[in-house]
Structures are given as structure tokens and as C-alpha cells.
Model the fold of this input.
Amino acid sequence: MATYGKIIYLCSAFCETMNVLDTYNIAWKGLGFGFHRFQYRIDGAFFKAFDGGIVDDGAIDVMAELELASGVMALRLVMTGTVRLACNRCLELYDQPVESTNRLIIKFGDGLEDDLDVVWISPDDDYIKIAKPIYDFIVLAVPMRQVHPDPADCNPEMIKKLELLSVRESPAQENNSAWEVLEKIREQINF
Ligand SMILES: [Zn+2]
Done:
């Protein structure tokens, strides 16, 4: 983690155009046939590079295994860690455990075919860029229901406020837009 911070510092000081996602480029040319393993630890800087995505913070260990054989290029991604999300029950941030194992095929071409399990590269490319597939599979691993795994970790005061609000608002709520409801919640909790 400390090394990562240093990279970002050097980047902002000396090479503004350097992208943090370039860390996840695999130089595949010159690798022999067989399996090649790469380990990464991704953190908030990685997620923030995908500006506006549904996940913007987390800590995940990634094992990327590149398989090179005659006529076959494949990548296995094994990821485990946590992403930081807002709890649907109490609105506070919590760390959601996520796990994901996927096998992708690397193909040469222009990438017009939209398939999550394929990474497209040009034969001229020196690197296989795996940051986007890593991000996509993490997002897919996020559960639909996002709540503290242990309900005891929820903020009881916030739940009480939200419950009070829903009781008070329920008779007229049908006519309220989602935006109006959100505004009332914000007033209640003094954002
Ligand atoms: Zn909660």
C-alpha cells in the first residue's frame, strides 16, 4: 500500500499523464509458453480511476494467471477482498466481502464483439490491459442487497431516524418523487 502511494506521488510530481491503471498492463511479448502469475493489491486509487462507477473504494488481492500456449491465450483472474459500500439499512459505509474467479480468452482483433469474457488486443500491442476486466468482475461480484453483514454493526440511531421518517411520511408518500423523499431524509439527518 505504501509503495502504491509513492507511485502516485511521483506520478503527480513528474509525469502527470501516467495512469494508475497502467500498473495492470501485462507485457506479454517475450513470455514463453506456460503459465505466468502476477499478483496485485488494488485499493481506492484503482477504483477512483473508474470515475463514476458503482464502486469507488475497496481493498482486493488479485491473482492474474496468464496462460500462453500454441493458439491459446487465456487469463484467469482470482480476486478476494472487500469493497466499500453504503449500507441500504443504515446508510453508513461498510466493507462488503467479495470473491470472484473468472477465465477470460485473449483474442486479436478490434473488439467490436461485446463479450465480458474476452479481452481484445492488437498483435501490435505490447501489453494486455487487465484493469477494466478486473473492475468489471468486481462490480459483478457486488451483491444486489448491500447491507452490513452483521446487523449489529448498523448504526441504531440512523435506523431510528429513518424509521421515524418513514412513519411520518407514509400517508403522503405516494405522491412524492424519489427526489423529494431524499431531500427530506437529508433535512432529517442534517447532511
Ligand atoms: Zn448498516
